[in-house]
Amino acid sequence: MMLRHVYRKSSTGEYWGKFRQSGRVRQVPLGTRDRQIARRKLDQLAEGCEAEQLGLPGRSAGLLLVNHLADFLASKRGLRRDSMYVYNLEHSLSRLFRECGWMRLGDLAAPRFEAWRAGQSALNPKTINDYLAALRHFCRWCMDQGRLGRDPFSKVSPLRREGVDSSVRALSRAEFGDLLGVAEDRALVYLLAAVTGLRRSEINALRVGDFHLSDLPPHVLVRASTTKDGRMIRLELPGDLVSPLRAQVERCGMGGAPFACPSMRIFRRDLAAAGIADGDSAGRRVVFHSLRHSCSTWLADMGVPPAVHAALMRHRDPRLSLKVYTDPARLEKSSWLNRLDFSHHLPRVSGPGVASADAAGRGREVAQKPVDIGGGRDLTLGDGDCLDLANNWGTRIRT
């Protein structure tokens, strides 16, 4: 026998229900201010869960999964979740329901998911784990709503991700310079993404009024309704970007959207023109989000303190900046090693070619030139690399 109890929340005036199932107390919103209606709704939810626990078709089990999914997505929109986040949930769950042949809650089963997962050779482990996470999130919501008695996937372990911590790879400084060289009118949006770490959706949502280029320091306000975590962000801008940004904003006019990120088709075309492969041997891809990873990698390579690094990347936990968003393969480790000068401890060796080799080794750091991008940050380019943007924006990033 399950214990049932309804109570009113003082903050909203609506009733919630509490009942015990399998030793666990569940609390669910009932969406009404009428005690009698709340009691009936709680009885229906509890009886449905009890029937499912006994292997009988409960009231909620008769609904199609698409109906439960629609309610689930509506609850996320009601919480003002990011539209892309809701879209990804809908896409992942709809695909799973379709390809696994699930029609109702009672059809959900771990063996069927594991069989589906085993056949997804084209998906990388991170993507498959995202499908599992979406599925478990949906099941937990159904449990909290009293629609499902237990999570059928609670014992399913995510796939191990060997080798790398991300399916996205960063660009090296030289690659980024090559990309800017072929991007034409898209170079400014690529540069804005790379030096601020702004995401595609955040850039697309920017409006003219968000740019405060005459303030000291110049900055852009990223509205809370457009950010991933729902917080308003004040991002200081590198000094060298102010002039081209001002020109772009003035061309757009008040209330307009200064930037529209290029489609992946155009982005891949730019990568090909720059001679940049869109994947590597580890299965990592170069996508627009790679520019954010590049920003994090360059900050780590410059030795920026972890707390500052996390603040610039807008991560609450510095470990996320270093572990996920920093690409170890793109860190210029040799230039840091060359700063450990132990030459006075080593025996002198003479002979043909020794002097030139020694000079080449110790000269790497000298051969690289810092590119001032403002805000106390710089990019480091090797000889011959120059981010010359004068033709596009009427300005030059100083080398």
Write out key terms for the chains shown.
44% helix, globular, 399 residues, 8 strands, DNA polymerase, domain 1, 3 domains, three-stranded antiparallel beta sheet, mainly alpha
Short précis:
The protein is mainly alpha-helical and 399 residues long. The chain has 17 helices and 8 strands.
What does this 3D model show about the protein?
- 44% of the residues lie in helices and 9% in strands.
- It is built from 17 helices and 8 strands.
- The longest helix has 20 residues, at 125-144.
Secondary structure topology:
Blueprint lengths: L3 E5 L6 E7 L2 E6 L5 H19 L11 H14 L4 H18 L9 H9 L6 H20 L28 H10 L4 H10 L3 H5 L6 E2 L6 E4 L10 E4 L5 H11 L11 H10 L16 H12 L4 H8 L4 H6 L9 H5 L16 H9 L1 H4 L1 E4 L5 E4 L8 H4 L6
What is the percent of helical residues?
40-55%
Structural class: mainly alpha
Strand segment count: 8
The arrangement of helices and strands along the chain is EEEHHHHHHHHEEEHHHHHHHHEEH
Uncertain runs are 336-347, 353-399
Proportion of beta-strand residues:
5-15%
- How many domains is the backbone divided into? 3
Q: For the report, how would you describe the main beta sheet? A: 3 strands, antiparallel
Major beta sheet, strand line-up: 1-2-3
Gross morphology: globular
Query: Any idea what the radius of gyration is?
Result: 27 Å
Count of individual helical segments: 17
Mean pLDDT: 75
Cα separation of the termini: 76 Å
